[in-house]
């Protein structure tokens, strides 16, 4: 697979998000998840993403098991900072203090069973803690060899600039897809200016482009999406219409809507590396194939017309969840 660069870190053009392997989008399937991670490495999808909060550590342990014996094939990213999640409201408890960063990295290294983490993100920021203090602690971890590169997630452009002035930031992770394009106004150009990579999570609209979510009642009882405004009954009906327009384009070019959505993201800049999440080998293979799809200028115009920002129904998080982004 083609490579891209996040700051000074070389990664596969498409990554693998592992969150869904730990009871976030329905039941976990550990054996299939391990097979999926290993198949990703076989395909050259080297960039794998997890976090300490996913499954309360389960996700890191699973990933550590999956990459055992293949560490040199993996660009390993994990995150810290979220210490509590209310799945009903998406409200988060956040600790971005230097002391917590030092404790959290040790726990992640132990669960992942590795000596160093390639990319260590601040998952969310507590605005009461100066970003310079958090980044200063992470810079110490770089000096100690416990992490190689520093990342941030869901911060505003001003915060990114302050952090980057304290220590080079390799990547900014944020929700970014045809359904979530807020960062295009300021953050995307700021990252390009500073040489910071952009890592879109939920790049296929939290499954809206898969065609498998057309009725909220079809979601598992513990599926996180039940709490999201996009999936409220009337909003979902309207958003499915937008996704179906992309399906029509995809059908014409012999691709899937998921592949078109991912290929679209790859056109947003050479510093953009999406991390579609899956726990199934067949979907991983579909995602990986998107890196070989070329979208013409005409197709990009059609896609823009198919999913106008003004027609997207609902916010990406409930009000409580929105409080933790763009900090």
TrEMBL record:
InterPro entries: Aldo-Keto_reductase, NAD(P)_OxRdtase_dom_sf, NADP_OxRdtase_dom. Residues 13-305 form the NADP-dependent oxidoreductase domain. One of its GO terms (molecular function) is oxidoreductase activity. One of its GO terms (cellular component) is cytoplasm. Keywords: Oxidoreductase. Transmembrane segments: none annotated. This is Aryl-alcohol dehydrogenase-like predicted oxidoreductase. It comes from Herbihabitans rhizosphaerae.
